């Protein structure tokens, strides 16, 4: 069974540090039962917590980015960053966040399925 390293409390960094476990979760060649055998309920809980934490962080980033764009518009000629630069930055950040959200959703979906399998085997 894999043992996760929670050195960085939450989010994408912890998932990257535990790429082996994430690889097991996302491996389409393994059944849910095989994945459950390889990853403990505690480690799944940590992965799910990381996904939820990252989701919150990404939402905060997008909300703040929206506020910055509004503030930039109101600064006019005083702004040190041009609107073109802000739009380019926001597009890049939005693309990055979209990709992370997609990956987090896949990890979360598989981790939840494995967690349900763990729960069903405990009841038996």
UniProtKB/TrEMBL annotation:
It comes from the Bacteria. This is Uncharacterized protein. The lineage of its organism: Bacteria, Pseudomonadati, Pseudomonadota, Betaproteobacteria, Neisseriales.
């Amino acid at each position: 069974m894999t043992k996760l390293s929670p050195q960085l409390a939450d989010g994408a960094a912890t998932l990257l540090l535990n790429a082996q476990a994430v690889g097991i979760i996302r491996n389409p060649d393994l059944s849910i039962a095989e994945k459950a055998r390889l990853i403990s309920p505690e480690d799944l809980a940590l992965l799910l917590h990381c996904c939820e934490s990252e989701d919150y962080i990404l939402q905060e980033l997008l909300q703040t980015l929206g506020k910055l764009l509004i503030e930039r518009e109101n600064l006019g000629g005083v702004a040190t960053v041009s609107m073109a630069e802000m739009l380019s930055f926001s597009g890049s950040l939005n693309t990055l966040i979209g990709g992370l959200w997609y990956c987090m959703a896949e990890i979360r979906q598989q981790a939840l399925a494995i967690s349900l399998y763990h729960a069903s085997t405990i009841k038996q």
